[in-house]
User: What shape does this take?
Amino acid sequence: MTYYNGTPETSKIPPTILDGVGWPGFALLFAGVVALACTAGSPGADAGTVAGVSIAVIALLSGVLRITIEHGRFRRQEETGV
Assistant: This one.
């Protein structure tokens, strides 16, 4: 039986989550959502709102990219058996 971070592979949690390497992507997604929520209530398009939305978009895109890269790494790792 294969274990990922102490959890057996037979659990219902996907191994990509149990791998423990994808957390920066999820943290970036969370930061992007928080930044977007903080700027959503701002009336008008002042410099702070534009900066907040820019940070939110960058964090969301970086998070998705990071998760995609880690998912591809995990798939390659499973295919090669390393």
About this structure: The longest strand covers residues 3-4. The chain has one domain: 22-80. Residues 22-80 form one domain.
